Task: structure prediction
Amino acid sequence: MKNIILDFGHGGIDENGHYTTAPSKMFTFPNGETAYEGFINRQIGGLIELYLRSNYPDYNIVTTVKTTDSRDLSLSYRVQVANQFPAADTLFISIHSNASMNHNASGFSIYTTPGVTRSDSLATYIGEEVEKYYTDLNLKLRFDFYSDGDLDREADFYVLMKTKCPAVLLECLFFDYWEDYKLLKSAEFQKELAWHVYKGIIKYVENN
Ligand SMILES: [Zn+2]
Result:
């Protein structure tokens, strides 16, 4: 496994302080504080990138967008980054945070395309590592063992359908739910979560 593609969902905050992504990807709490999904995705994803680069300097770690780049790049571009590498030697991991209609949902989920592919195994390794940490914190694991017997949820998300290599999409927690957001913005939580996702990626690589 030579190429690990990390995708940080949505845009960041530009040099003028403007969020580059649609209002549905941000949320203002009653206390006036605003959560920006794309900003959180970059923080957590950037730590996964750091752990991979420092511990596995031989791997080709590629990000679809730099953590310092606030642009909200198109889904087709993100897929293109992954598909330039041979599928057999590549993994694609997209980092997101979730939101719900009533702003009161919480927890972690990880998605693959419907059906059983190599992505399911990658999702299981990552999900089981995250489970260890989230269980300690009493956080909800939104696993789905019904559709195909393993913990991932299944969806026809564009970046999962169009990438040729094993591909997963993580919804770390809900950015529009205060208890989840408090964790998402905490440096300590970000480091621990990123470390567990990193460990899941490495376990997949070592077993394939
Ligand atoms: Zn998202």
Remarks:
- The chain has one domain: 3-206.
- The chain has a mean pLDDT of 96.
- The chain is about 40% helix and 20% strand.
